[in-house]
């Protein structure tokens, strides 16, 4: 992995059709297309909870090379989530990279189902690495989440420098995910381009 990998929260958005995705692209090809442009993906909890064994294979077939899946967990990992995520990790193997937990509950586990955990919270932090952004703290395993991405290049540059500048010694790189009500892929592309220009 390079120092920085930019990705998004999910890959299926109506607003991406005709912009990021070609107008006539079949839904089954969207992940293939996404994975050619971006190498990491934060999978929404409701998405991975609905996957079955056929989905596992189709999703893995859609990505090639060094692609990384990160899995959203909301609040905590109950038994149903744990069973499903354990199955996914078993099948996805090295492409399953981490858990991104959105929670205000006090917790101290640094791994879930064998995956390292990044906690995104307003009130709680995990030991070790921390990055404060937009009123939240990302902590634990280095991994950033931006809830609303600014469209200003100078602000995007400052965001990237803040994120990468806080990596702990020996960190081989980390993903930065864009989340929000409506993700603008032009701005995500700009963020990725600025990161490459900065040498990240």
Automatic annotation (TrEMBL):
InterPro entries: UPF0759_sf. This is Uncharacterized protein.
């Amino acid at each position: 992995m390079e120092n920085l990998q930019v990705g998004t929260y999910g890959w299926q958005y109506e607003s991406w059709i005709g912009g990021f995705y070609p107008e006539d692209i079949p839904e089954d090809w969207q992940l293939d297309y996404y994975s050619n442009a971006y190498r990491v993906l934060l999978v929404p909890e409701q998405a991975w909870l609905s996957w079955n064994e056929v989905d596992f294979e189709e999703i893995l077939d859609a990505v090639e090379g060094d692609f990384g899946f990160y899995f959203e967990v909301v609040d905590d990992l109950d038994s149903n989530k744990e069973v499903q995520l354990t199955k996914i990790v078993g099948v996805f193997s090295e492409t399953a990279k981490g858990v991104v937990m959105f929670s205000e509950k006090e917790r101290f586990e640094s791994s879930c189902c064998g995956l390292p955990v990044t906690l995104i919270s307003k009130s709680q932090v995990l030991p070790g690495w921390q990055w404060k952004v937009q009123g939240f703290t990302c902590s634990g395993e280095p991994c950033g989440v931006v809830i609303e991405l600014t469209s200003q290049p100078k602000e995007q540059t400052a965001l990237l420098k803040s994120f990468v500048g806080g990596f702990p010694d020996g960190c081989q790189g980390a993903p930065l995910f864009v989340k929000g009500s409506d993700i603008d892929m032009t701005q995500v592309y700009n963020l990725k381009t600025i990161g490459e220009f900065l040498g990240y």
